[in-house]
Design goal:
- The protein has 124 residues and is mostly beta strands.
- 0% of the residues lie in helices and 48% in strands.
- The strands form 2 sheets. Strands 2, 4, 5, 6, 9, 10 and 11 form a 7-stranded mixed β-sheet that branches. It has a 4-stranded antiparallel β-sheet with strand order 1-3-8-7, with no helix packed on it.
- A hairpin with a 5-residue loop joins strand 5 and strand 6.
- It is globular, with a radius of gyration of 13 Å.
- It starts with a strand and ends with a strand.
Length: 124
């Protein structure tokens, strides 16, 4: 299965962007979808995740209240709506899929499939 992330771009601080992650096959085969980001010189870090079946969401503390993760079953797509963007949100954003049920949600190793990344740049 292929994951395709899109929607990145250049935005001013305080602005908004919506990222999309489309799967090439029916996403009900994924238990959980996650968003991660990686800034230059830093490790890839967890941003948000959502369970496909029950819709439960998880957020990293620094984005809680500013970012919203959602899914559209009909479109086989996961979204990350990012509001009140800050310069420290600048990074390449990746979507990821986890096949197995349960387990954790915030670590890179807990996901089996990855998209190619989309650049988000927030200017101050």
């Amino acid at each position: 299965v292929q994951l395709q992330a899109s929607g990145g771009g250049l935005v001013q601080a305080g602005g908004s962007l919506r990222l999309s992650c489309a799967a090439s096959e029916r996403t009900f085969t994924f238990y959980r979808m996650g968003w991660f980001r990686q800034a230059p010189g830093k490790e890839r870090e967890f941003v948000a995740a959502i369970n496909w079946i029950d819709g439960r969401t998880y957020y990293e503390d620094s984005v809680q209240g500013r970012f919203t993760v959602s899914r559209d079953n009909a479109q086989n797509t996961v979204y990350l709506l990012m509001d009140s963007l800050k310069s420290e949100d600048t990074a390449v954003y990746y979507c990821a899929g986890r096949r197995l049920s349960g387990g954790g949600y915030s670590m890179v190793e807990q996901y089996n499939y990855w998209g190619q990344g989309t650049q988000v740049t927030v200017s101050s």
